[in-house]
Amino acid sequence: MIRCLHRLLGGLLLSMLLSGCTSTAPDTRTTRAPGVDFSAYETFSVAGQGMLAPDDRKLLESWIAASLRDAGLVPSEDPDLEVRYLAFARDETSVEAVPREELLRVREGYVTWNEYETDYRIVTEGTLVVDVVDRARDALVWEGRVTQAIERGARIANRKRIRSAVEALLAEFPRR
Question: pTM for this structure?
Answer without folding.
Answer: 0.71
